Amino acid sequence: MTQNNPVFDLSIRWDNEAPAGTAFTATAGEAVLRVGTHVVWGRTDDLGVHWHWIDLLAFLSENWLALTLEQHYPLPVKPFLPHLLRATADRRWEMERRAGAILEERYLDEEEKVFWFENRHNIARAVEGLVVPDVFVMRQNHLIVVSGKDFSEYFDYNLFVQMLTGIGNQIADRLRGIDDPIAVERVREWDARLPEFSEAAARLYTGASGEFLRKVAANDNLSSFYNGEYRKVRETPILAAARMAWNASMSPESARTVLTTLRRQPKVSSPDLERLRAAKPVTPRDRKPAQAGRELAEWLHKQLFPSGLSEASLKAIDPAAILMRWDVPVIQLDFADDGIDAVSCWGEELGPVVLLNAESSRNRRESGKRATLAHEICHLIFDYHNGLPFADVVGGVDDDDVEKRARAFAAEFLLPSNFLANRFSRDMELGRWVESIALAFNVSNEIVVWQLKRSKIEGRLSDSDKAILRQYVSSPQNLF
């Protein structure tokens, strides 16, 4: 379940109005934890669970980086929600046992990784002396997902961090001034919850191995390479790009080429791009990603062509020229990774900038390069501030909602499905028609076919027509 502005709130009724005594008596009280519309700990009549909440403060301090930065599961599985990790892992282990494909040593290693992940992300572990429902917290790009049995909520990342900070502060404030060494230590830990940069912190955020991070940095100091001039751990554009490079299975050599190029890029000012970002429509959270992408493309057409989109203006769309007009540099590099089409990066100190992979088989064709850059236009307008923090890698990454939306946007921006339906003709053989449209509008045959599918002319196609169209797409089983 999701809301526009869901709450994550721990309301505590303290045993004593003024904090006094030990660290434990000063933080004793009844608490009700609300996640969205769900009362997860306590009851709806505000009768809470009683505990000394200094334990929660210690948990938040110790696991702050994991709760706010870690975005990777410790195993090669992708549960729908974080509290389902163990059940998902159990199914995987059972299937591997039946197939004789798992060694006991690997099982024990993976089980330990799941255990420590749960220790970092399940807030219920903060109150080990109580039996309370699990509450898992995990970062997902610009969102935080909070889930447990029978509930799940998605929060804006910055808003959630503010709410979680507020919970910690209300407990820490009870301890400030208490004459108890434990109180002093817990306050010190809370105030220092954001540690200095370290390889361990970089591994936690990126999910990458230490070996990968060191190879990418090469002879450079690890902290200055990834974290810039900052001593404390900070989510920098370079660190975000390293995370996505690891996700995309980029080689350390290619990642170093990309990251060293990004580090040299200046901050770009683009008033035209900023105006579009400010005016962009708000996409409802329940809108399907592909549908949202197509609606966003229609909106951008109206902004760029206020007098209407003609065939001539559609053919004249040049994503590279649009980016140039917005002062966004497009730099061509050789990543030596064929599966990666482009890397974009932005932040307070650099960019936005697009690095185009000259070795990508897609980008060797002009139609493919146009689709890649149109994809980036979507991110730079619609995801710049909240969809993707700091970086994007096109190709070689998970098929998440942000990518589905950008792909649908690129196809609709370059070849609108309604326009294509009006051009549909049976005057020539269907395959030749697809190829002629692709050539005329400088897009791939695959984009033509998928846009034809989305144009709702399927009822006019015979089985033999569908067989012809399947030959032009990379996933024919999903076409019809």
Short description:
InterPro entries: IrrE_HExxH, Rad_response_metalloprotease. This is Zn-dependent peptidase ImmA (M78 family). This protein is α+β, with helices and mostly antiparallel strands and 480 residues long.
How would you characterize the overall build of this protein?
It comes from Azospirillum rugosum. This is Zn-dependent peptidase ImmA (M78 family). This protein is an alpha+beta fold and 480 residues long. The chain has four domains: 8-191, no CATH class; 199-263, no CATH class; 271-414, no CATH class; 417-478, no CATH class. The protein has 22 helices and eleven strands. The protein has helices at 23-26, 54-62, 64-68, 85-98, 104-121, 157-175, 181-191, 199-206, 210-217, 222-227, 237-247, 252-263, 271-279, 289-304, 311-315, 319-325, 366-383, 401-414, 417-423, 430-441, 445-454, 463-470, and strands spanning 8-14, 28-35, 38-41, 49-52, 136-140, 143-148, 151-156, 330-333, 342-345, 353-357, 391-394. The strands form three sheets. Strands 1, 2, 3 and 4 form a four-stranded antiparallel beta sheet that branches. A four-stranded mixed beta sheet has the order 8-10-9-11, sandwiched between helices. A hairpin with a 2-residue loop joins strand 6 and strand 7 (151-156). Helix 11 runs antiparallel to helix 12, helix 14 crosses helix 18 and helix 20 crosses helix 21.
Topology (elements, then pairings):
Elements: E1 8-14, H1 23-26, E2 28-35, E3 38-41, E4 49-52, H2 54-62, H3 64-68, H4 85-98, H5 104-121, E5 136-140, E6 143-148, E7 151-156, H6 157-175, H7 181-191, H8 199-206, H9 210-217, H10 222-227, H11 237-247, H12 252-263, H13 271-279, H14 289-304, H15 311-315, H16 319-325, E8 330-333, E9 342-345, E10 353-357, H17 366-383, E11 391-394, H18 401-414, H19 417-423, H20 430-441, H21 445-454, H22 463-470
Parallel strand pairs: 8-10
Antiparallel strand pairs: 1-2, 2-3, 2-4, 5-6, 6-7, 9-10, 9-11
Helix pairs in contact: 2-6, 2-7, 6-7, 9-12, 11-12, 14-18, 17-18, 20-21
